[in-house]
Specification:
single chain; alpha+beta; Alpha-lytic protease prodomain-like; Alpha-Beta Plaits; four-stranded mixed β-sheet; elongated
């Protein structure tokens, strides 16, 4: 019996991404103005904590720009050699953000250690009121992305990053208050090291996740064994699954391809109409390419050695 190669694709809507264009524009504008304010007063007050946070917020601005650009590119239709379009740009944006953040961590750590060895006077009152402005900027920017944080991993990353920045800014304010009360100048570089540590923790997770997605690994929130079980249990006619691959098309879309060995090819045709919906409902996989095979054709399939159940 001949091979069957139907390609079933679930609907892929990007409507909720388009709704965040205004949020990206407002968030980028607010944070860019705040970065300039924070850097200027950081230099004026000679506060490394403010300068460190300004560098962090600048990386946030670049991150928002990259994320927004990736959303825009991801909505462009396939064309020419880009048969999947530009959806993977969101993964590359995440990877680029991780690299930028690692560079920022290195610079902040170097300067903090230098100031621990050679403490410098800080205008703590200036640090406090500038940081208070940052609380409102970071908090409001996080709010702009909160409604989409459960639907889109890219939007969720922006939300969590800005929410974390709000907490970091609280730390800056706390350090400035302690310096004004105690005169302990070492608190300024110490809080800078804490900021660097917070960035590093988030960056490591971002770097690891985006690298794995860029290398076509199964997304971390999906269990490959459960997906195999779902395919095998389909109507009781799938006796084997091989050449199963699950990978990310973008930070919001997952694709799957597999060969299904069926004991009843007539029922297999109806199975092809149902499985894509099941995969989307259970696992969020919206792009499924499935190939039916009889046991006889599976025996001569050159891809069978790539994995069976």
């Amino acid at each position: 019996m001949a091979h069957h190669h139907p390609h079933q694709h679930g609907g892929e809507s990007h409507g909720y991404q388009q709704d965040f264009g205004r949020a990206f524009a407002i968030g980028i504008a607010l944070n860019l103005v705040y970065v300039m304010l924070e850097a200027a007063f950081g230099l004026y007050s000679d506060s490394l904590a403010l300068l460190a946070d300004a560098g962090h917020n600048l990386s946030d601005v670049l991150g928002l720009v990259l994320a927004w650009g990736a959303v825009w590119l991801g909505q462009r239709p396939p064309q020419g050699r880009q048969t999947y379009g530009f959806r993977r740009s969101s993964i590359l944006a995440s990877l680029g953000n991780a690299i930028l953040l690692l560079l920022a961590v290195g610079a902040i750590t170097y300067e903090a250690i230098r100031r621990l060895l050679e403490p410098e006077q800080v205008a703590s009152s200036t640090v406090i009121w500038v940081a208070v402005v940052g609380l409102f900027v970071n908090g409001f920017t996080a709010y702009l992305f909160s409604s989409g944080s459960k639907q889109d991993l890219n939007i969720r990353g922006a939300f969590l990053h800005m929410a974390a920045d709000t907490g970091v800014t609280v730390g800056v304010i706390f350090a400035a208050l302690l310096i004004s009360w105690t005169g302990w100048l070492w608190l300024d570089p110490a809080i800078s090291l804490l900021i660097a540590a917070v960035i590093l923790v988030g960056t490591w997770s971002l770097l690891r996740g985006s690298t794995m997605l860029a290398m076509d690994a199964v997304p971390r929130d999906l269990d490959l064994a459960s997906i195999r079980t779902q395919l095998c249990d389909a109507d009781g006619i799938v006796v084997e699954v091989h050449d199963l691959h699950v990978w990310a098309l973008s930070t919001t879309e997952t694709a799957l391809s597999a060969h299904l060995v069926c004991s009843d090819m007539d029922k297999g045709q109806s199975l092809l109409r149902k499985l894509p919906s099941q995969l989307e409902q259970v696992f969020g996989i919206r792009h499924a390419t499935l190939q039916l095979e009889t046991p006889a054709t599976a025996d001569i399939c050159p891809l069978r050695s790539s994995g069976t159940v």
